Batch of 3 targets.
Target 1
Amino acid sequence: MKSDKSRDYPLEFKQSDQGRCPSPSGMSIKSDKSRDYPLEFKLTPRGPSLSCESIISDKSRDYPLEFKHSDQRRCPSPSCESFKSDKSRDYPLEFKQSYQETAERFTVPQQNLVPIFKILEESIVAFIKNELKNFPKQQDHKETCLSQEEDADEKRSSSDAFLAIALQFLKRMKQGEVDSSLLNSSVVSQCAVKKQAHLPGNDELSLEHDIQARPERVHHKPLEDFITHQTNLKILEDDILHFAKNELQTFCKILSQDLSESSESQEVEMDPHEDENEKRIIKKAFLKITLDFMRNMKQEELANTLLNKSVITLCQHTLKSNLKTRFGYMFEGLNKAGNPTLLNRIYTELYITEGTPAQVNCKHEVKLIERAFFRPTKPELKIRREDIFKSSTERDKPIRTVMTEGVAGIGKTVLTKKFALDWAEGSIYQHIQFIFPLSFRELNMLMREKISLVELIHLFFPEIKEAGIHTFEEFRVLFIFDGLDECRLPLSLKTKEVLTDVTEPASLDVLLTNLIKGKLLPSAWIWITTRPAAAHQIPPEFVDLVTEVRGFNDPQKEEYFRKRFTEEEESRRIISHINSSRSIFIMCHIPVFCWITATVLEDAIKTNQERDLPKSLTEMYVYFLVVLSKVKNIKYDGRTDIDSFWTPETKDTIQSLGKLAFEQLMKGNLFFYESDLTECGIDVRAASVYSGVFTEIFQEERGLFHENVFCFVHLSIQEFLAALHVHLTFINTGVNLLAGEDSAPTTFEDFHQCAVDKAVQSPNGHLDLFLRFLLGLSLETNQTFLQGLITVEGSESSSSQNTIQYIKKKIGENVCIMKNNNLFHCLSELKDCSLVEEIQAILRPGKLPADKLPPAKWATLVNIILSSTEKLDEFYLNKYFESDNAATGLVTVIINSTKAVLSCCNLTDMSCSGLASALQSKCLLLKELDLSNNDLKDSGVKLLCEGLRSPHCTLETLSVSGCLITKEGCADLVSSLRLNPNHLKKLDVSYNHLEECGVKHFSAGQKDLKLALQTLRFEPSGSQFLKPGLRKYACELMLDPNSTHKNLMLSDNNRKVTVGGEQQPYPDHPERFDVLEQLLCTDGLTGRRYWEVEWRGKVHIAVTYRRIKRKGDNDDCSLGKNDESWSLLCSDDGHSGLHKNEVASISGAPSNRVGVYLDWPGGILSFFAVSSGKMTHLHTFHAKFTEPVYPAFRITEPTGSSLFFSHIL
């Protein structure tokens, strides 16, 4: 009862709970002077406790980790007290100023540290060498540590720290027996000292008992052998000295940097295979030695600073180590099956793009996937994972808050785990001191608690609490909040309740709200992931950057299936089958759906059912349920694969899950708790053990608070089971759950029409996929698979036909592209493609009869264009038809394009009202609109300006050149720019009759307003441009006799050319074609020009540069067969375009009168069929003309073929 001096180096264990219960359990009446530097072992099952308390002194107590603001109530201080002195208590880890104050006050220029560290290095090197020389003396334990002097005690403290280092280096040298011998020598020595000093205690008993239990460890032979070999000692000495010098260099860097910089260079290169805990022991022990020597050198403040910064470093190291353990591995599939795989090995880069905060929405996830295929290939900013918080020149402020959207199963959570893992492994963002990944799923458990931000961090990251860090203002911190869509907290970013103190308790919703808004810990970075449906919870003004995870692109899809099906022919068939089904192809954008598809197709191949591979979503999910039922029967119930799919247990499980799926879908819940399952009669434990179906399609996750959270593997599975439940209930009971459980029995036709109406009326489309499944389940092919669950009815065929007609009617009534798109998918699920086939039949011969198309067929054409595999970057209306009806019918395509070219499409003011409505759409993607050369007039421009002045209009380029506009139209355009001045950058109003007044309108507007307008074209201008159509650009042309082949005869004042019966007596000329029957006009053309040609026989109507070769018959001389000429081939068989010897076929009957329009500055050369004053577009070449072009012709048929210039009125 005198002292606990003999207490050895307390055993501190990895992940032990010492931070919560560190207090000693007993009392010494004299001293705890002998408490030694703590030995820390890996994964020892329990922590230590002191057995006695000193009434005299705690002199020997080693260096406890105590920090400013530590929570004494939760983490009590050690109970050993000294009633005499605490002189022997080692320097505690106490931050007496804030971290930043300490760093600023004691940061020392590196040049001033060099002499100090030179002396320090010399002293420590001498100390290490001396300690190694003393190893032989360990045999004589009677001579160790008997001095009662304080200097000797302090020296022993450093010696024990060195002993810890030596032990670890011996382990690295594979000298396990030497390591044990050296440890036992030290233990026996300390026991002897205690006995000589008459210091009994529980520690002594436990140490002796440990030695007696392992008598072989008391023998010192291995140590004697080791130290007698000087080579071994030399290797050990070199290794330790190398480590020490490197560590001292690191300490010097730490002291010469500020706090935010120091963490980037504090890691010391160590053996990559070394245990993290062993590394921590060595680093702490050497820090102890360094601090002792600094204090002996009277460098107290320097030691103080090094202590503060090093503790932060060690804490960060522990956090990184834990994150590597937590995120280093992941399961492929479900957590309960399979073996974990290294995340770095299986991670595939995801396609991440940058959006804007205004793009948050609540659309159905499958609709958003499909919309990705409708988007044009406009330049998108792809963001690498490691660049997500890096500022760019396009952003006017630094990034603090990032929101990453993505549909379920797309890879958002894995993305954040990979980011945290990369940080922990030191590959990215090393200027961040701490990353705290949190999930809303776990935060939901605290929704009724009041907690401070510091307490929240300590709760989820106890290593921060153990380090005693209670303030984060001086650190760069990143919070990752995963799964906003799972949040059940009443987040309200509009709240006026302000929280600024990280230590002040508050409700979790208030805490998170102020953290996101930047009121609380404004220096922190925030990263939130969410499904699109929940993104609106964070207003755009609080989000600096929105990113979107797109999942698999087309090559990645193929890569997935090639890895899953290793036989080349097999994978080729699978990929070909997936590409043949639009619905399946789109859904494979999601990695989880690829897994579902692979599961189904693998079973189909094994059971030789390749002829009946699923071709629709409903078939895929029905087959998927069958496959899982078969697995359950074989694996869990011991049945054969020829038994019935649907056992009574499986039926009950599927029906219960279907009820849960439907009820939660109608409530909008994607995640639910055990109480939700109980309400639907689901026994979680029994189902998870006995039902393979349950465990495959349902996920159960256990959080920090041990409360289970459930969800379906993917939203589509929830919707499929919900549809199955509704369908099954209607068949078995006649009850239409969509109309209410009290609804009267009805027919299948009314049942389906009710479902269609419900889905169409849904504001966010949450029933769209549900509707596809519900209608698909009515087909006989799917009911065959579901025998035993669904009673086969004989009236489905007629009901399906009635449903198909009802859907077509709805398609004609709808104006929403996405709702119509879903209805087309519904027709596909019902195996009806009649609308699409009708439109494709119309498209084959050429132009559409636009004036005769009903609304449903216009909607079908929109769907065909938008769902085409061709990228929709630039949309040309004249490819389909040139009329007001065409512009109105295809306006949905226009707003979903980046650039829409409606030039020369015979538009009038009738189409401008629909275009104005399109420009006001919130979904507008259009950036460039070309309406040039249409007879819009001032009345059309006035209507168009209704859209231009809308704040949703983000149009950047507008051309109304040659649209018969006068000064009145100019005034309307300027007025619209006043109301929406921030987007339009280029405006072309040339080739109109603006007059001086109209020009002044624009000039005044540019001077008075802060317009984004950078380019304004209003010349040329004049009354001659008020002629309708392209005739305003008409020009007079003359054929050039000097270029005319001698077989061609000119007439009508050189306006007509005919193939003659004999050669003409033209004089020789260097510009004359000598082999090919070709000729040019006299004048080269620039600007805008229009002319018309009438022809007979077989001719080429072309333009060319003057430098085209004239001698010979090779491609350099032939019109259209080189890069210097562009030609239209005309014959009784039809027309075709020719440039660079590439032929462009043109459908439709030939026209003997052809109009040619040249827009030289715009790089456009267009050909039109002219008949009875009407113009029909034939073909357009796009080129960047670099010199004047000359009209040119070639006549290839024998005598009688001719062409001449028409008179244009």
Note: Residues 300-327 form the longest helix (28 residues).
Target 2
Amino acid sequence: MSKQCEKESVEIDVESLNDLQLEAVQASFESPLLVLAGPGTGKTRVIVERIKNMVKGGIKPSEILCLTFSEKATLEMQERLEKEIDISDMKIKTFHSFAYEILDENILESGIGIGGGIISRASELVWAMNNIDKFNFKNIELGNNPFKILESMIDGIMTFKNELVTPEELRKFLKNKLVDKKITKDPEKLAELEQLQDFQKMYANLQKFLRENRLVDFDDMVMLAVELLKEKKLILSRYQKKFKCILVDEFQDTNYAQFELLKQLTPSGNVTVVGDEDQSIYRFQGAYSSIFADFRQNYNAKIKQVILAQNYRSTKNIVNLASKLLKNSPNRVQKNITTENEGGSKMIVARCAHDMAEVDWIRKKIQSMLGQDLKRRDGTTSPVISRDITVLTRTKRDGKKFALALHAHGIPAAFVGDAEIFSSSIGRDLLAYLDIANNPSKAGISINRILKTHGISELNTAKINQTARTYAKSCVYSDYLFEVLTKEKFYGIDQKEELEEIGELLKILASLEHHNTVSQTVHKILMNVTDLYKNLTRDDLPETKKKRKILRELQHLANEFEIQNNSGTLKEFIQYLQLLNSFDVEIQEGFEIPDAIRVSTIHQSKGREFPIVFIADVAQRKFPGDYRPKKFYVPDELAKGFGISSEKREFYLEEEKRLFYVAISRAQNHVFVLYAKKILEKTRLYGPSQFLEKDLDFENDSLIKVIDVDSEYKHPQPEFYNEKDLLKNDLQKLIIRNTQQSQISSALKNILNLGKIQYFEKNNTTVGFDYKKLLDIEPSINLEFELKGKKIPLINKKSLTLSASQFTKYSQCPKKYKFSHVLRVPEPSQTFLSLGNVVHKIFQTLSFRQKDGKPISQKLAYTLLEQYWDSVSYNSDVKEKQDKARAKKMIKNFLKWTSSNSNKVVGVELAFNIKLKGITVRGKIDRLEQDDQGNYYVIDYKTGACFETVNTISENIQMNVYALAIEQKFHKLPVQASLFYVNDDKLIKYFIADSKSVDIFKQKLEGIIESILNEEFEANPAEGFWTCKHCPFKNICDEAVKS
């Protein structure tokens, strides 16, 4: 008998199905079937058996269409079905891939061009940034962070496409609304409509760009397919006849456009949808909870509904608690979920003293459970292993601390976060190489990263940077690092050979762009010029997989850039990547976790189950998180599924509750829920989540055991790991073993063998290889110092000078200070005056006139603005116009303040030198005033946002340094030191009643000086992620906080 016959004669597995499952499997194929399947009720088994029953009933596999929501779900469905029937002719696809297939198959009839391919969201974000001026915004304020606004607009466009609302439909809607006097009299509604007008311009421009370049994005695929089938009835009829049975998995995740496509294909009701409204957690992607009601309404009396209510996954206690959580949720079908499993242990709710106590308790609990016997769902008993356990958090950022803590104690853990392209070490390595290839003479920071990754000592790095700085003083076109490394002889530096090798690498990189396209340059850097990709082929660990995928994604971005810019330069590609970096572009990891504790978000746990589940951070303001409504939404009059009425806090809270339900229902045997009463770095106290307190009444429920976790946490000593952490080849392993066992001769022999292999790779022969050249080196000149326990200092104490900004930088992060002022790593040069610098320069000129007794005016200030303004520095006319308006606003605030200020200006840009612990501290004070009694007032202008308050300004480093400077210069303290936030028109005053507070701060500054002299430069960002995000050295700092 043939394989085809064997497959099609397969019987459904009746014995494995309960009555309700069997009812769903055997329901009519020609009528709509709605299967409501709670967690663990066997929905996938029902889909597989129903498809088998369809084939048994005479439906050909080619006449069956199965739609899923992710490539991963598609692969899993294929694997399950392949074991049962021949699916070679069956279509198992995501909604997007199926819609793209419709467009591709009917390109001649439709006239819809998609030859340019699929454009990513990332590329659309860059397109938006590059085309701001074309949108002619009149009502949307871009401010200082246009990236966030544009990102919200691109996401808003996604929402409109999911609702099948075109730019033209939106334009007509707005035109009609803006002539309605009732609406135009309401300032709030009018402002919303006017912003939607700006939004519509961008939406229309994007669609024009896509059509002209024959491109589609993911949301276009479904939208265009729906439009095509609506307009071309013959094409629609062909697909309706082609598929006799259509099945949809995870129906609760469907958006309106996808549902419309489904309705077009199944007018007779030959559709099966399987889902659970209680697990609807993808509202941010357009899914809406009323989709099941819409399904019932559309197919009306024809519909058959089956509720799968027997849970095979969890214990009775877990099932009952999960059901209790949603018991009072409105507008849901009540499902009496039951189970025949054992009662099981109580849910543990751990109230932790603080967040690190929470981390430590989870770590200790996992350690105690590993290896303990566990009763499995198949009736067997076996020890708990790592992959039996998951730690779930509401957000990705919250999960990292748990993975790090487990790793630090030798417990295998895999953090299932999105792979961040630009903040990953491997991504930053490639970006550094690209920067050098583009403009080697101005790639100082990138070259410093290469020096670090190639093992050049900090002392030698500092010497090279100092030499380069000396040359660079007479040249504005180069930072001279490239020239120094490719031409210098490196006298007095003990890593001469290594530096010469780096010099040769830099020369190769510098020559790449002359002979290659952008994508070719990226590929050669990855595969030929460096070992970036080669080093990632030696193992298959999760971290290695992630790095490989990041490099592939960067290569893909280069290819995509080239398609859209066939004559684009490497410089333009780097600018493209820089814009993407501003939008925090990420990629999904897309690979499975080996035998390790799985740390992930709850969203990423969907569709999975674990014997042991920890749900962390279930506290106020953490879970549910703060409600943030979408900035751009579909008006209710245009919405078909998800409009502004769905964009309410109560809907958000209900979805957050469903998310908690999903987390609990992942568990088979044990659930641990934790919350921290306090975050160590913050003063705020946190209570339990409202889901624990109100919905579960956790302190009074007999199925829950509450424990209090006191603080036993101690800050661990820092551990340093090899960033690459790759398996070594045989020779490298031998060298390490030889050196560990002090087998120096054997180690040297194997090093020479490595040199011989390298020679062969370059010359394709070993003839001419001279091992003596490898041995013609000198031992490190630092070795004698190190043997005697001495350390060559990086700082020259005699020439050290400091400033208020340097104190601030050290307080923000000691390593940031080290990069900037010790290693002197070149920072990006400022070739133009920023908005802040222009405003400071205007204020300086006006203040000098006041000091000299000359009048000032708005007209004069605006004349200065035109003189100092540099339009060339702006890529966007809109941004320039907005910044100039801000400058005028700040000028007005300054003039208003000076007109009511009776003090006399006695100092402008007042320079000072003071001594603290024998070290000179230098600086300049923006403005110094004196009143009639001779009291001094210090003023410093700030053009940015106001973060200081009257409660915090007494701790401001700059204000206290300035106070000390005035005391030493004029032998009396100022009575007031103020920060003038001119954009916000706020004067934050620090009243200095006596010298006590300044003296206390002086001791703090002296402590910082001592730390600098002791070279205490460990990375310790004061504000974690935010400090690192804006640090110019994040690409060469291994300790940079990524998110």
Note: The first strand starts at residue 33 and ends at 37.
Target 3
Amino acid sequence: MSNNFKKSFLYKALVFILPVVMCVTQLSAIPVSAATGDPDAEIYYLEDAAIEAIGDIPSGYPKSYKIDTTGLSGTVTYKVTSGTDCAQVSSDGVVTPKVTTVTVIGSTSYQKKVYTSGDSVIRVTCGSYTKDVKVRVSSYLQIYVDNMIDDILDEIITDGMTDLQKLTAITKWVAENTDYSTYYQDTASMLIYGSGDCWASTNTINAMCSRCGIQSKGRNGRYDPGAGSGHRNVIAKCDGKYYIAEAGYSGNRPRPYSVEEAPNGFMCSLFTAYRYDGDETTVTVPSTYTSGGNISTLGGGKACVFDSNVKKVIIPSTIGLIANNAFNNNVNGNITITVDSANQNYAVSNGILYTKDKTRLVFAPASKCTSTINAKTTVIGENAFSNIDGTYTIVVPGTVKTIETSAFAGTHIKKLVISEGVETIGVAAFQYFKADEIVLPSTLKVLPEGAFFAAAGMKEITLPDGMEEIGKNAFQACSGLTALTIPTSVTKIGSNAFDGCSNLHIYYQGSASDWAAITLDSSLPSDVTLHYNSVRVTGISHGSSDITLTAAGQSVKIDAKASPTTASNKDLTYASDDPSVAKIDGNRIVAVGEGTCHVTATTVDGGFTATYNVTVQFPRYTVTVDGGTAYYIDAASSGLEGSLCSLSPSKTERNDGLKFKNWVLDDDIVIESGTTTSYYLAIRVPARDITVTAVYDPVKVTRLLINNYNWEMLPGEEQDLTVQVTPTYAYDQRVQWTSGDTSVVTIDSNGHVTAIAPGKAKITATAMDGSGVVNINNTWITVKDPPAQPTDPAQPTNPTQPTDPAQPTDPAQPTNPSQPTDPAQPTNPAQPTDPVQPTDPVQPTESFYLKQVSGKWYCYSTLTGSWVTGFRTVGGKTYCFGSNGIMLTGWKQIEGEWYYFASSGVMKTGWFKSGSTWYFFKSDGKMATGWANDGSTWYYFASSGAMKTGWVKDEGIWYYLASSGAMKTGWQKISKKWYYFDDQGRMQTGACRIGSSTYVFNSSGVMQTGWKQVGSDWYYLNSSGAAATGWKKLSGKWYWFRSDGTMVSSCTELIGGLLYDFNSSGACTNPSGRKP
């Protein structure tokens, strides 16, 4: 590999920051901490090519570090939660710079490793413990370069120097210590290799100025006389004045350099102030040059003088000439211009710049373009109204006689009226022009060369009676122009006047013979349609605006007609705004799918429209399920012929005692999934209402067990037997009771047993559901003999007559107790009847009710009668009660989550507006934060719960939310700029493939046009933003773009059977090609 190639590769590495795969050599341990403020650690990387030039990273700059998790027990996990393109972390907590390998495809393909500087956050988790660690990933190359700059400044900058002296010393060092080379454009390469181009010189001077505290920036030196198209140098502000620092753009060291004052921030030459590069928004044009001469001219360089940051310009008395390109509405549309009253050449009236006598209008800022043009004005100057963009109506009065070249070039407005009296229009006066309407006067006799060149946005133009000549190329490349009215007064049409007008209809007011008398410098293009004796369309008529179609493929003829019926061109075009609902086939509307759309018929002549409101509604058919339920799989197409319908049984074994057996349905029903015996069945809905039947078998008894009973009985005794049925949900649980010997015991159908006589009998319970199941336990009842009747006892003999006892002494006379009454003779209790067999008691359920006590609301339990706390559902509504039992209202934070309870106490769910702010509460009542979906649409809510609108950045990605809060996807025009958001709402940047085209978006997401470079690839983007493909001629040179829009360069390609060579800038050097 040659040294030059190595240098070239290093250049690419330095520009794109090529990485090197690093080993974990120094593990710097840091404690876990919150990821706020300064980083917890910083690690470094260095590109392979840089290592080759300056050696590896010194030991004092760690390439990795290990997170210290001392004190944590259990499994620790690590995850990069932000800055995922900067750092990566291993399973054991070692953090290293993240490296990505990409393949660069060109004339010589190679792989490069890419690092990204920035901060990453690593989340450390161990059980419920969570902490974030911030790690900064930095390029060591920048540190190395900064050290080189410090060493250089130590040599050349001394105490007491003014900023101007420092700037001069820095510029001198760069010019005298480096060579000019197109290899390198960056500071690092210039300092390490000692060479670079003007961009490298500029970047190096700016880097050194920054270290010295001098305000400086790069400027487009290409505007300077004699400079190349890509030249760049420095403008710096020293001691209140601006200076241009130039380190040269050719030659080897020592190179010439200069530091010259830029008066008021202007680049001046030959008494001309031609470019302003300062930073002020209010700018005064200098009246004198550095050498002492007066500045008499403003503008005249390669571009307009002022950038868009300039809001006000003050023109001194010395200015005698303002060039046509001094101002441009592309960047100066809102500028305010003032002119010194002593100026003898220019003045401002109503915000518009005129010559002193008001006879010539020099420049009209877009913000002032609708102001009334001065009555003294006879000339609209070159570029005076060019590049205005807005819904303006501009009126040029009849006092104006001349409109100069490009006066309205590139202007996009609503309407332009050029009044009667204007006589002359300059070449290309309306090139790239666009307006809904333009009115031209009959006093205009000649439409000059290229008058409307590439005015692709114009749809219709009427040339006035009295116009005599149409210049060459007058309407060339007006691809959007569909109608042009030409009067019979025209006698000459220049060459190529209508080339590139592929959709043009010319409505000539005379006959074919009149047209033949016109002098045509070239014939009409074949795709231009000419109408003679033209009668213009004045409107459009149609029948009913409402159309309903009921079947796919059904169609209806569009009845719109152009009027009058005598119109020369009655052709119509048709368009549907939703071809998925209804499409256009010729002049018919054809149903495609259900929905609503609008079909518009438009007259080719005049653009008159008729709109049809189309509804496509296919018939719905009902699926009725006897013994089951029907569920339409796609709710949007429910009931449509051919839509999917899922069937499921509605009865279950446990609840109903029935077991699903099979489905009964008509033979012509299409089964999509399952069979007639499948529990779930999917069918296609036919073109009629149908009934499907679910067939069930009863659940049979599989086991009977007679419960506890008395084994032994006496004649006349009675008892009741019960039986335990398995399964408990058997459909028919009746049993038949039988006694094996009815002379011993009898048993009725309810299991009531009566003992008859001594003996032994077997009791049997048999299931009556046809299963034939009998009880599994042998049940015998023994009736015993009653006990023997006892005999009368023997009569006792008379006892011996006792002797009288001694007479006792009288005891103390007791008080008479109350004489007790005889107790009531108890009646015989009624013979108890057999108790009814009790059923199992129903388990009581708990419910709640609200009660107001002392003006406070509480919730009480129906089981305990006490008030309860926490969340409770009453009457289908959810409430919450505090630890004191009182009902909560308003905003409440519960276990870290926010809820809102109405004044009635009901917990809010769904959308809620408080003041002017919207909130969203989930189904469980918790306030949403971050991203949330309300069922159909994504929204984003701040940590306060407030719904966000407009731009939102989440985890480094930009999203855009409509005023309703809904996340936007697809193409969106925001502040007059186009952006694209993917189906997840993420704003796109860089080169993106959308549909069949490639588009390029800058780092802010704005769609780009023109030449743009992405990485090492160049694209050319049309005005629609789509990248060009195939051959493209630009600025007189031919380029070839691949199907993905990337430009071919520095190679030879086989295209259409021929070989073509392309130089490094992509231009084809042999446009005719050569044979292989």
Note: DSSP finds nine helices and 87 strands in the chain.
